[in-house]
Design brief:
355 residues, Spore Coat Polysaccharide Biosynthesis Protein SpsA, Chain A, 2 domains, ten-stranded mixed sheet
């Protein structure tokens, strides 16, 4: 955003069958300390009564722009469509079953105003259950870990529309990990910052997209994510991996079962994935396979003790990095996006350093 552009903020939220959490999500946005924004909500052909609730909200607050899709577009197409319907040059994402802190927008927009080279700002998050009860606090340690996995949730991001459009938005080939793919492409053209404070609450519930979708389809998608990240680490690109993958009955990365099992675990359920890992997992004599075997077996036998162990592990990791990441201060997140020495400016990066 150049100096002569007027700043317009749009909050965007796709909705598909988001009851009973929809009201709380909308209220948390409308009650932001920074109140000058438009709230674009896309009703992606909901069938659970969400449409009626959205019509009521749109009638109550003029900031809400309700867009309705006659057919279900799905997670990727709806995420792109809701941005297309927005008029802002600063876009804040929101997920329909989550909750945000009252100062979220104010804090994130301030970072974008103060740092013109920054293209996207995320925040740390708390995790809550279906009833809004706290499950675990922010995982500060993830900010300092050099990983392809972002330390912030998708719904917490606020970014410059210019950068989003330059990288091409979300890609259908990366369904169920379209957010991670977007961040990696954005990181090559602009800086990504993280506010080290929980300004967002992620809800683990049965309505979560990965939980509510076809299990086999989600497993294949997450396997593609792991294969793509391995290729990116090796060669600096994973585009050719997106064109194909294992068949429906092929063996998949064992880490898939930890990733998907975590959703059930923190939702208060018992993940029954050990046998599925044995039948579907690409098991080898290596650390990922051993970790998946232990995790899925433990989760099946005693999910309560596994949750307790993971909480203790997170707290110890957080204590170790607290002095490196002062709470509330934004710091840069730099994923391994390619071979060493890649020049951002040659790839069309934004920012005064690339003028």
């Amino acid at each position: 955003m150049t100096a002569n552009q007027e700043e317009v903020i749009s909050v965007v939220m796709p909705v598909h069958n988001a009851l009973p959490y929809l009201d709380q999500a909308i209220e948390s946005i409308l009650n932001q300390s920074l109140s000058d924004f438009e709230f674009v909500i896309l009703d992606d052909a909901s069938t659970d009564g969400s449409t009626g609730r959205l019509l009521e909200w749109a009638a109550k607050d003029p900031r809400i722009k309700l867009v309705r899709s006659a057919r279900n577009l799905g997670v990727v197409a709806s995420s792109n469509r809701v941005v297309e319907e927005a008029s802002g040059n600063i876009i804040a994402r929101m997920d329909a079953d989550d909750v945000v802190h009252p100062h979220r927008l104010e804090r994130q927009v301030a970072v974008l105003r103060e740092h013109p080279e920054v293209g996207l700002v995320g925040t740390l998050s708390d995790t809550i259950d279906a009833k809004g009860r706290m499950l675990r606090g922010p995982e500060i340690w993830r900010v300092t870990r050099r990983s392809f996995q972002a330390p912030f949730p998708h719904g917490s991001i606020t970014y410059r529309r210019e950068l989003f459009e330059r990288v091409g938005g979300y890609r259908a080939a990366c369904e169920y990990w379209e957010d991670q793919d977007l961040y990696l492409r954005m990181a090559r053209m602009g800086r990504i910052m993280v506010i080290c404070e929980a300004l967002y609450q992620v809800r683990h519930s049965p309505t979560s997209t990965r939980v509510a979708s076809d299990q086999r389809r989600v497993e294949l998608a997450v396997d593609l994510m792991y294969r793509s990240m391995s290729q990116l680490n090796a060669s600096g690109s994973f585009e050719h991996v997106l064109g194909g993958g294992p068949g429906v009955n092929s063996r998949i990365d064992p880490r898939v079962f930890i990733s998907l099992g975590s959703l059930a675990l923190w939702s208060g359920k018992k993940p029954h994935l050990f046998r599925r890992l044995l039948s579907r997992g690409r098991l080898r004599a290596n650390a990922p396979s051993a970790a998946a075997l232990v995790w899925t077996a433990w989760a099946s036998l005693s999910p309560v003790t596994l949750r307790t162990f993971l909480k203790l592990l997170m707290r110890s990791r957080n204590r170790f990095v607290t002095t490196m990441t002062p709470e509330g201060d934004p710091i840069a997140w730099e994923p391994p996006t390619g071979p060493a020495g890649t020049d951002r400016c040659q790839q069309g990066a934004i920012g005064p350093d690339c003028a």
